[in-house]
Each structure stands twice: as structure tokens, then as C-alpha cells.
Amino acid sequence: MIIYLAGPDVFLPDAVEIGRRKAEICALHGHTGLYPLDNAASHAATSASLTIFKSNEAMMESADAIIANLTPFRGPSADAGTVYELGYMAGRGKLCLAYSNDPASYANRVARLQQVAEATDGRLIDAEGLTVEEFGLPDNLMMIHALDLHGSPLVTPSEAPQDIWHDLASFEACVRLAGPRAQRFPGFTN
Amino acid sequence: MIIYLAGPDVFLPDAVEIGRRKAEICALHGHTGLYPLDNAASHAATSASLTIFKSNEAMMESADAIIANLTPFRGPSADAGTVYELGYMAGRGKLCLAYSNDPASYANRVARLQQVAEATDGRLIDAEGLTVEEFGLPDNLMMIHALDLHGSPLVTPSEAPQDIWHDLASFEACVRLAGPRAQRFPGFTN
Fold it and tell me: For B73-114, how does the pLDDT look when each residue is reduced to its tens digit (9 = 90+)?
């Protein structure tokens, strides 16, 4: 199975190395991992961002599945680019798998970053008065239930590993899920 | 044209009212706007979050287009649920339109929230040492270029309106784009 490896891993100082490790884990389980930085050589062009977009979209088209790293990134939710890619793959009918190295609920994640309070109408609200989604899920319900219905439930560790950006145990659990489920979920093939 | 109205607007204290205003603007331009809270009556169920997911996905399936509110939400990027929906609609081949009431570049948005610096290897990095995408785009390149290639470029005001959550001028500009482009972009119909 060809698996697109989505995540803010590409923003790490050792982005290339972590992509290599992820692809290696895929190979150990009989799969092929496609990592966005595999196309890095072409990124020097003046229209670099458009080149990256097109190569990532082409990689997603050629993949049967996505494993998205939904560990919170610069806020309580996952990286926006990764979330876009998860949505795109769900829309294309591909197998959707993901993990988060932070198992905290979304409401708790928000509460770690800013004051939350109960409004007079009973809503849990943030400092700006906007509702804080409170379903006990680790992130926005759209991603969490997309995984439930278009692949397999979000994988989280029982507690956050010491190095949330380099611990690949939950990633490897996703790779294992790609095997058996593939037979039951043929995916979208053109 | 049937347009799915995605955005963190559903988290506003006056979420129902802003949905009504958006649907009204759609109607004025000959379109039908579908707003996630149109299904609010059924949300009292114990499996409320799954009910919301299923009704939002059904709404997206029935729509020809999406107008996503990508105004930054609890961080430098757009709301994760909205971004998922934009990706899903792009994957389904629907017309993708979006606006952000904050025209600042992503790098500037990050710099407003935390210290950014140039690393010894030349990368712009945040306080955690993670690369800050710096293409002069308002948000992650995946969403911005998805709009360029699957719909119309992100609509932003020349400067942020006083009330970023209630000003609908850029939303209305998206509705106007839905008209003429619909003929050139027949979309995915099943």
C-alpha cells in the first residue's frame, strides 16, 4: 500500500531524517511511505510554494492512504496543512489514518493556552467569547469522526511521550492498521 | 448553486444569526447557503458530535461549492474543522472559495503570537525551533494554493475590518465569485 505521510514533521530541524525514519517503518510493514520533502530538490524555484502544493497533491493522488500527524501545532489543534490533506484524502475516498502524540481533550488543550469559562448561556467559552467544543474528543469533531468513518479511530498514547515530535510509536501503530484494514477498504483508485 | 458555509462562525455567541445573514446574502445572489447549525435541533442526542459530523458531511455532499471562513482561529491558522471541510470539498471536486478577514502573512501572524528568529541554517523558526512557513501567503500553502487551483484565490480585505467575526464584505465577495465561475467549473455531481 502507498501511504502519504502528512504532518508538521516537515517543519522540524531534522525534517529529512524523520521522514526517512517514517518511510523505513512503512517498508518494514510492507508499505511505501511518500514524504512531502522527497520533492525538496525542486523547491528553490521562484514559485516554490505552488511547486510544493502540486507535488504534494500528486503524491496524495498516487497514494492509497494517508497517515496524518495531528499532534497540536502552534495552538490547540493540528497543523492546518495536515488537516487540509486529511480532508482531501477523505474526499478522494482514500483510507484515512492519523495519530496525535497529545491525548488531551480539545477543551483541556484550549484551557492550557488561555482562560476558558462557562458563559451565562452554559457554553464553555474562550477569552474572546467563542465556544470551545467540548465533546471529550482530542480535536475538532470533523477530523476525529472522519477517521472513525473513513479509516480507523485516531491513535493516541495513554500519555504524551517525552519528545512529542520524534516519538514514532503511535505512527507505527497507524502503519500496522494500514495492513489489515486495506483489504476491507479498497479505496478510490483513479 | 448550493453552497456549504464553513467557518468558526458556529462558535460565535450569535452563531445562528450570522448563519442567517450568510444564507440571506447567498439568496440575494441566487444561491442557496447551507449552514451547519441548520441541523442544530438534532444535536441533543448523546452521540451529538457524530450526529453533527454526519449532517455536515451530508450537507457537503449535497452542495456544489464551499465558502470557507479562514480567518485565524485560536492561533495563526484557520479553524481546523473548517480546513478539513475545505480539503474534503477539494477532494470531492467541488468549487472551493474562501476568505480571511485577516490579510496578514502567515509569518507575521506567528510573530504576533510568539518570538520568531532566524536559525543558523537560515530557516525562520518559532520558539520551539520549528520552521515558520515564509512564502508571503496568509496561511499554510496547501489551503492557499488549493483555492488557486480548485476555485478562486483567497479573498482578503486590504486591512482587517474592525469586527473580524461579523464583517461579511469578503464573504459577499466570495458569493459573487460563485456566480460567474460556476459556469466555467461544473463541479462533481454525484
Answer: 999 999 999 999 999 999 999 999 999 999 999 999 999 999
Residue A177 DSSP one-character state? H
CB contact under 8 A, B84 and A81: no
Residue B171, pLDDT above cutoff 90: yes
Contact B80 A139 (CB under 8 A): yes
Walk me through the domains of chain B, giving residue ranges and CATH numbers.
2-103+139-184 (3.40.50.450), 105-137 (no CATH)
Residues from chain B contacting residue A134 (CB–CB below 8 Å): none
Give the closest-approach CA distance of B111 to chain A in angstroms.
Answer: 11
Which residues of chain B make contact with A79, given a CB cutoff of 8 A?
77, 140
Could you say which DSSP state residue A138 is in? S
Question: Which sign, positive or negative, has the C-alpha torsion B71, B76, B79, B83?
Answer: positive
* Identity of the residue in B78, B91, B135 whose CB atom sits nearest the CB atom of A91: B91
Grid coordinates representing A190? Answer: 483513479
DSSP notation for A64-133 = SEEEEE----SSSS--HHHHHHHHHHHHTT-EEEEE-S----HHHHHHHHS--EE-TTS-EE-TTSPBPP
Quick one: average pLDDT of B41-68?
86
Phi, psi of B82 (to 5 degrees): -65, -40
Burial class (CB in 10 A: 0-12, 13-18, 19+), A111: middle
Query: Is B11 in Cβ contact with A131 (below 8 Å)?
Result: yes
Interface residue of A88, A133, A139, A150 to substitute, partner B, most B CBs within 10 Å: A88
H helices within B30-115, ranges in order? Answer: 48-62, 80-91, 106-113
Complex prediction ipTM: 0.93
A141 and B86 in contact by Cβ < 8 A? no
For the segment A147-167, what is each residue's pLDDT rounded down to a tens digit?
999 999 999 999 999 999 999
Of A74, A84, A143, the CB nearest to B142: A84
Sheet arrangement for strand B95-99? B32-34, B2-6, B65-69, B95-99
pTM exceeds 0.90, yes or no: yes
- The string of DSSP codes covering B6-52 is ESGGGGSTTHHHHHHHHHHHHHHTT-EEE-GGGGGGGGGSTTHHHHH
- Mean local confidence (pLDDT), A67-82: 98
